[in-house]
């Protein structure tokens, strides 16, 4: 049985950054296991620019961003295996994986970092009446088919959901000479970044239909049309608002789900709001020797934030391996609407600072984010506008968390 200090599951942006950070902190014998054909993960199919603005202070394409970390991995001599599937992790710190070259492997390790990313919600996760013809595809699958395989997915397209992948594909398909009829979103706000709404829709005169949804898909062998209806505040179709769009393709951009099946199999504690693991501010899960970062933890809006979080995770895993001590006392993190979730879910007490990330479930304007801990208010931050699609960051001074039962309470005041 081969022994490693650290095994990173996933060779996308999170796994690459975590592995490099652990190596820089003094860990050798690191192994990255990636199920794809090459390192880089989803970035390989994201040929548009807009990556790296915050981390590298430069606008890069997805492959360019990934390549910077791939070069660091190779420069530091970090071992990696591609086209390798991780089947299980066991209680004795063993990672079970398989590939064509090595067959079934049982690898011993001191720690594991989960960096498996996320997957798209399929049509089956969204109830849409109608037939089941060809021409219904997720936006990420369409992106891979066009950018990697060079295939066409359709001529007249409706996009359901206004997530960033859907917005970017609206522009990509238009540049390919296809007709994107509309982006249909059942929420009263977009789930994509503001810059993508401008650059991908408004610049190409593509309509964004908020508070609308597809209520029927028609077609026998191939999609022939869809019915689009306005929805009320309970997201129920409004009678008489139906409109038929003749199209041959429906792209689904209806959300992402953390790829955490390995954690479920190992009985890892999960957050029902994020669908990812419960972690502390060192990104340590309920399984002491397993850490998590990136989209397997919670779905990020920018890869730059994935990198920053993953570098912190790699360093924390390295400290665990080097036995530099782990926290014994924590403050739990509580929150209330309109906050939809916060990560991490607990903060180790002691010196230094903790970073918390949260999202809201609706647009918030002219409000204040209030942080309280133990015996009183720690901080109060004015928020002119918070969009649900944009992750918010809080930096907390740990020394201000005190009291008999230390707890961090995050709330938003002034919400109408």
Descriptive notes:
The chain is α/β, with parallel strands linked by helices and 416 residues long. The protein is built from seven helices and 27 strands. The strands form seven sheets. Strands 1, 2, 5, 6, 7, 8 and 19 form a seven-stranded mixed β-sheet that branches. Strands 10-17-11-12-13 form a five-stranded parallel β-sheet. Helix 1 (13-24) packs parallel to helix 2, helix 3 (139-147) runs parallel beside helix 4 (164-175) and helix 4 (164-175) packs parallel to helix 5 (194-201). The protein is globular and about 65 Å long.
What proportion of the residues form beta strands (DSSP E)? 35-45%
Number of helices: 7
| CATH architecture verdict of the largest domain | 3-Layer(bba) Sandwich
Helix and strand composition category: alpha/beta
CATH superfamily of the largest domain: FAD/NAD(P)-binding domain
| Main β sheet profile | 7 strands, mixed
The helix content, as a percent range, equals 10-25%
Mean of pLDDT = 93
Principal-axes shape call: globular
By DSSP, the count of extended strands is 27
Q: Name the poorly predicted regions.
A: none
CATH topology of the largest domain: FAD/NAD(P)-binding domain
- Overall CATH class of the largest domain: Alpha Beta
N-end to C-end Cα span: 60 Å
**What is the CA-atom radius of gyration, in angstroms?**
22 Å
Integer count of domains: 3
């Amino acid at each position: 049985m081969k022994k490693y200090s650290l095994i990173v599951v996933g060779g996308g942006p999170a796994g690459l950054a975590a592995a490099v950070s652990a190596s820089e902190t003094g860990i050798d014998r690191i192994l990255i296991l990636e199920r794809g054909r090459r390192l880089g993960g989803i970035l390989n199919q994201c040929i548009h620019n807009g990556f790296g603005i915050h981390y590298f202070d430069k606008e890069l394409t997805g492959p360019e961003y990934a390549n910077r970390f791939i070069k660091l991995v190779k420069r530091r001599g970090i071992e990696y295996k591609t086209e390798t599937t991780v089947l299980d992790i066991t209680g004795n710190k063993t990672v079970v994986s398989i590939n064509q070259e090595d067959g079934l492997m049982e690898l011993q390790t001191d720690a594991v970092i989960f960096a498996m990313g996320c997957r798209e919600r399929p049509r089956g996760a969204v109830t849409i009446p109608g037939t089941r013809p060809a021409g219904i595809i997720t936006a990420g699958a369409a992106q891979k088919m066009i950018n990697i395989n060079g295939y066409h997915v359709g001529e007249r397209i409706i996009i359901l959901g206004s997530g960033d992948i859907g917005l970017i594909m609206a522009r990509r398909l238009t540049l390919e000479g296809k007709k994107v009829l509309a982006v249909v979103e059942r929420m009263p706000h977009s789930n994509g970044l503001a810059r993508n709404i401008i650059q991908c829709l408004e610049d190409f005169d593509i309509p964004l239909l908020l508070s609308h949804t597809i209520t029927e898909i028609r077609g026998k062998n191939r999609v022939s049309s869809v019915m689009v209806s306005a929805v009320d505040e309970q997201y129920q179709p409004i009678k008489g608002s139906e409109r038929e769009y003749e199209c041959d393709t429906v792209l689904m951009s209806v959300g992402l789900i953390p790829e955490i099946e390995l954690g479920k199999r190992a009985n890892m504690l999960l957050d029902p709001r994020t669908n990812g693991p419960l972690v502390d501010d060192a990104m340590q899960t309920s399984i002491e020797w397993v850490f998590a970062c990136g989209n397997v933890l919670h779905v990020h809006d920018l890869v730059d934030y994935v990198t920053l979080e993953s570098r912190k995770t790699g360093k924390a895993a390295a400290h665990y391996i080097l036995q530099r001590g782990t926290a014994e006392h924590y403050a739990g993190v509580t929150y209330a609407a309109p906050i939809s979730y916060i990560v991490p879910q607990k903060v180790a007490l002691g010196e230094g600072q903790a970073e918390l990330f949260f999202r809201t479930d609706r647009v918030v304007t002219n409000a204040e984010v209030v942080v309280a801990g133990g015996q009183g208010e720690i901080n109060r931050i004015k928020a002119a506008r918070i969009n649900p699609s944009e992750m918010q960051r809080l930096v907390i001074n740990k020394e201000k968390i005190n009291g008999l039962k230390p707890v961090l309470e995050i709330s938003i005041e002034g919400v109408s």
